[in-house]
UniProtKB/TrEMBL annotation:
The lineage of its organism: Bacteria, Bacillati, Bacillota, Bacilli, Bacillales. Gene3D superfamilies: DNA Methylphosphotriester Repair Domain (3.40.10.10), Homeodomain-like (1.10.10.60). Its cofactor is Zn(2+). This is Adenosine deaminase. Residues 75-173 form the HTH araC/xylS-type domain. InterPro entries: Ada-like_dom_sf, Ada_DNA_repair_Zn-bd, Homeodomain-like_sf, HTH_AraC, Me-P-triester_DNA_alkyl-Trfase. GO terms for biological process: DNA repair; methylation. One of its GO terms (molecular function) is methyltransferase activity. Pfam families: Ada_Zn_binding, HTH_18. Keywords: Activator, DNA-binding, Methyltransferase, Transcription, Transcription regulation, Transferase. PANTHER family: ARAC-FAMILY TRANSCRIPTIONAL REGULATOR (PTHR43280), HTH-TYPE TRANSCRIPTIONAL REGULATOR EXSA (PTHR43280:SF2). SUPFAM superfamilies: Ada DNA repair protein, N-terminal domain (N-Ada 10) (SSF57884), Homeodomain-like (SSF46689).
Amino acid sequence: MWEKIIACDRKYDGLFFTAVKTTKIYCRPSCRSRKPKKVNVAFYYDIDEVEAAGFRPCKRCRPEVEHSPHIEVVQNSVSFLVNHYKQNVALKDIADYVGLSPYYLERIFKQETAETPRMYLEKIRVDKAAHLLKSTKLSNLEICYEAGFQSPSNFYKVFRSQHNCSPSQYRKECRHELG
């Protein structure tokens, strides 16, 4: 267990907790706070057990919260992307909105979602385009700009990568399924 906390291994979060006897604080194995001396550490497998022993949760890694401590940052980023998908959104815009550096935001976002904010934005745009292809008579070019893409070539490339077909083929398949 000591090796896991030194490595800040996230895979063990929730499986055990690290309690520091001198500070009376307990953490997740992945906590990035300064590591205590090994002799001052006790390990607990249950959150109720560690709290009953008189330890309080770390304010940095928030082990008492069931989810990742970064979930709020990700939710705010997703909210920003959903509300601004039509605009030309840069990573700096999202980072400014959530109050982090672009580098750190991208790292946290990818850690939590396995995608970059750009990839997530492209999924939102492609979902919007797919909806418009199914439900409107707009041309592919109109849908491209309505979904927030800046260029038709990028629209076709991203759409094809996510749906394994062109927007026109997608529209035909949807009509064929309905008809």
